[in-house]
Amino acid sequence: MRTSIAILLHLLPLSLASPSSPRLSSQEIIATFNEVTVVPAVGELQQVNSYKLLNYSAFNFLNAGVEGAVVTGVVPQSPPICIATGINENVIAGTAQITRNYVGSKVQYFDLLYFYFGCVVNTAETVAGAPEMCTISVTGFRPGSPSKAVDTIDFTFSPEASVRAPMIQAFLPSTFSSLERVEIAIVEATGTSTTSAMLVDNVKYRVYYQN
């Protein structure tokens, strides 16, 4: 009798044998940060935290230039607002990362598609610092206990001008999918990685969340 029951259960459709998984919705987002009100030159005081369904840890909003005009520094991809991270922020809040984890989040995972970035000498104002060469390391982690690193890729920013330079695009491969978080760090710079600041803008990603 036990054998017969086991066989019948084995033959049941999966939809009857186990509860269905919750359906997830998806949405593609380009985070430009431009709807945020930021006072020029004091953006370091305004932490990003949660923004458009993801959390930006150790990043601050930054108003580039005066009235949107960048005289010295890195020009955001979509002026005037971008986000920035540097040694001061890292000491306080840890490694710069983009993550699904924050209070009230319904995001199960996300795909990181691309973002724009550039590096400057880390001054008190950050945005006033001159552009400088840097290499950043981007590592993706999938959910788990503990979370698992799935890929690491480096990108190098090499400004052609020493006073003012545009950002460059960091395009992520398909391995940066179904992520829990992404860590971004400066690993090499013209000066040192601890005296440089990284500016980031136009982050494109796809989120998967419960309705």
Helix-strand layout with pairing:
Elements (H helix, E strand, L loop, with lengths): L1 H10 L2 H4 L6 E8 L15 E5 L2 E10 L9 E3 L5 E6 H7 L3 E3 L7 E15 L12 E9 L5 E10 L6 E3 L1 E4 L9 E9 L6 E15 L1
Parallel strand pairs: 4-10
Antiparallel strand pairs: 1-13, 2-3, 3-5, 3-6, 5-13, 6-12, 7-11, 7-13, 8-9, 8-12
Could you explain the architecture of this structure?
The chain is mainly beta and 211 residues long. The protein is 10% helix and 47% strand. The protein has 3 helices and 13 strands. The strands form 2 sheets. Strands 1, 2, 3, 5, 6, 7, 8, 9, 11, 12 and 13 form an 11-stranded antiparallel β-sheet that branches. Strand 8 (134-142) and strand 9 (148-157) form a beta hairpin. The protein starts with a helix and ends with a strand. Mean pLDDT is 82; it is low at 1-19.
Short synopsis of the structure:
It is built from three helices and 13 strands. The protein has 211 residues and is mainly beta.
Number of helices: 3
What class do helices, strands and sheet pairing give? mainly beta
Estimated helix fraction: under 10%
| Gyration radius over CA | 21 Å
Q: Which word captures the global form?
A: globular
Beta content comes to: over 45%
Attribute tags:
211 residues, globular, 47% strand, mainly beta, disordered N terminus, two-stranded parallel sheet, eleven-stranded antiparallel β-sheet
